Automatic annotation (TrEMBL):
<keyword id="KW-0057">Aromatic amino acid biosynthesis</keyword>
<dbReference type="GO" id="GO:0008977">
    <property type="term" value="F:prephenate dehydrogenase (NAD+) activity"/>
</dbReference>
<comment type="similarity">
    <text>Belongs to the prephenate/arogenate dehydrogenase family.</text>
</comment>
<keyword id="KW-0028">Amino-acid biosynthesis</keyword>
<feature type="domain" description="Prephenate/arogenate dehydrogenase">
    <location>
        <begin position="3"/>
        <end position="291"/>
    </location>
</feature>
<dbReference type="InterPro" id="IPR046825">
    <property type="entry name" value="PDH_C"/>
</dbReference>
<dbReference type="Pfam" id="PF20463">
    <property type="entry name" value="PDH_C"/>
</dbReference>
<keyword id="KW-0175">Coiled coil</keyword>
<keyword id="KW-0560">Oxidoreductase</keyword>
<dbReference type="InterPro" id="IPR050812">
    <property type="entry name" value="Preph/Arog_dehydrog"/>
</dbReference>
<dbReference type="InterPro" id="IPR008927">
    <property type="entry name" value="6-PGluconate_DH-like_C_sf"/>
</dbReference>
<dbReference type="GO" id="GO:0004665">
    <property type="term" value="F:prephenate dehydrogenase (NADP+) activity"/>
</dbReference>
<keyword id="KW-0827">Tyrosine biosynthesis</keyword>
<dbReference type="Pfam" id="PF02153">
    <property type="entry name" value="PDH_N"/>
</dbReference>
<keyword id="KW-0520">NAD</keyword>
<comment type="pathway">
    <text>Amino-acid biosynthesis; L-tyrosine biosynthesis; (4-hydroxyphenyl)pyruvate from prephenate (NAD(+) route): step 1/1.</text>
</comment>
<dbReference type="GO" id="GO:0070403">
    <property type="term" value="F:NAD+ binding"/>
</dbReference>
Length: 291
């Protein structure tokens, strides 16, 4: 049971966590803090938070758990502010999509609180944002990756693990470096590609005509280009070294396919498409559901 939970950034992820914990009866009081008054008011009206605060010190006073659910570049100023008013017993965790940068900010601003700063990343979400997009089931059956620090208190790690398990999530742990490399490949690269494809089509002279004929394949491939630009700017920059390596690898794959086209090498194209189709089917078959 969490007596006082503070969510900083009550958007899709912070709001969904609040709803899931409330639905599970695992929290007594939820306080919301954030940048946009309008979004916070919506969060209160929707029953996501019990009350909203504008002052960090009064928000986090005597909190058991503080969850940082702001875009990753906003983690630094948020941690700097938090450092001035955090109670020693409060456990702090984050939901950022990148982990090395957030950990570096925590090391910089909370050097004496690292035993209770537990880095985390729920692998669940959507292209929607804001409190109005939040829903309690978002984390059911989804993975949450925790990247513990050597300084972490074992009890604090188990409390954050239990918090996510209460939301129906499956918690795994790994080093932050490995986390950032994995998500560069399977999350950050696909988002970059989706944005790039839509950008490429949208600014052609005949864009309107092209879009008018785009069908389900285009919609599926580009769904994530509907994601929040500020959030994805921050993620791509925070993980730019790993993401650049993935862009280069993908570029090499495109060059390979381009050569096959130039050579009219249908046999090789079919082999690549076949491998990809089988690999995708095997991946989907191993997942608990099809998201
Ligand atoms: N959207 C997704 O699918 C996923 C996002 N994440 C991570 O979760 C975090 C939050 O993302 P979402 O909930 O999707 O975004 P969101 O845009 O729905 O919510 C972010 C909230 O933070 C507030 N905010 C922004 N800058 C702030 C600042 N400087 N100070 C205080 N509040 C501020 C915004 O007003 C908004 O309410 C990000 O770090 C993101 O990388 C993690 C997993 C999935
Ligand atoms: O919309 C989708 O399919 C996503 O990929 C959601 C998502 C976005 C960011 C994350 O760090 C994790 C999951």
């Amino acid at each position: 049971m969490i007596n006082k939970l503070v969510i900083i950034g009550v958007g899709l992820i912070g709001g969904s966590l609040a709803l899931a914990l409330r639905e599970a009866g695992a929290v007594k009081e939820i306080v919301g803090l954030g940048r946009s008054r309008e979004n916070l008011e919506a969060a209160r009206t929707l029953g996501i938070v019990d009350r909203i605060e504008t002052d960090m010190a009064s928000a986090v006073k005597d909190a058991d758990v503080v969850v940082l659910a702001v875009p990753v570049a906003a983690m630094q100023p948020t941690l700097a502010q938090l450092a001035t008013c955090l109670s020693p017993h409060t456990i702090v965790t984050d939901v950022g999509s990148t982990k090395r940068d957030v950990i570096a900010y925590a090391q910089q601003h909370l050097p004496d609180h690292l035993s209770r700063f537990i880095p985390g990343h729920p692998i669940a979400g959507a292209e929607k944002s804001g409190a109005a997009a939040a829903f309690a089931d978002l984390f059911q059956g989804r993975n949450v990756v925790v990247t513990p620090l050597p300084e972490n208190d074992a009890l604090a790690v188990s409390r954050i693990t239990a918090m996510w398990q209460t939301c129906g999530a499956i918690v795994t742990t790994m080093p932050a470096q490995k986390h950032d490399e994995i998500f560069a490949a399977v999350s950050h690269l696909p988002h970059l590609l989706a944005f790039a494809l839509v950008e490429d089509i949208a600014f052609r002279a005949n864009a309107k005509e092209l879009f008018s004929y785009a069908a389900g394949g285009f919609r599926d491939f580009t769904r994530i280009a509907g994601s929040h630009p500020e959030m994805w700017r921050d993620i791509c920059l925070a993980n730019r070294d790993a993401l650049i390596r993935e862009v280069d690898t993908y570029q090499a794959q495109l060059d390979r396919l381009r050569d096959m086209l130039e050579q009219s090498d249908g046999k090789s194209l079919e082999i690549v498409f076949g491998h990809a189709r089988t690999a995708r089917a095997e991946w989907l078959a191993g997942k608990p559901d099809s998201q």
